[in-house]
Fold this sequence. Notes:
160 residues, mainly alpha
Amino acid sequence: xxxxxxxxxxxxxxxxxxxxxxxxxxxxxxxxxxxxxxxxxxxxxxxxxxxxxxxxxxxxxxxxxxxxxxxxxxxxxxxxxxxxxxxxxxxxxxxxxxxxxxxxxxxxxxxxxxxxxxxxxxxxxxxxxxxxxxxxxxxxxxxxxxxxxxxxxxxxxxxx
Length: 160
């Protein structure tokens, strides 16, 4: 971090406010006292460093850390929030997509991970919606991992 004053400054301000609110037990600000708050503060600090400091290599870690902090907070506080592993890969894919837009990065891996994450997240709902064509869907559901592995092997070993 060339100009890490932004990152360190936001961390110190955020952690100072976090511990102050925790110590004073301010009822209106109790949602800032959960264990996920330092994770969110760190993610915000990384993103500010990335965009204000024009150090775009911190976009990906900033999105991932902020996204994980928000996700873990939401799991504990919102009943309707999905507690599925594909949310974590969805957050990672969003970081990859934003990194590819702001920095040096390829769009395709992030896009593929995004699509796969959505597929896994909504797989049960898709299966129930497509129950009318269950025979074709069940055949696909049985063999799609092989298809994905073959495509991965092709991409890994094919020469351009």
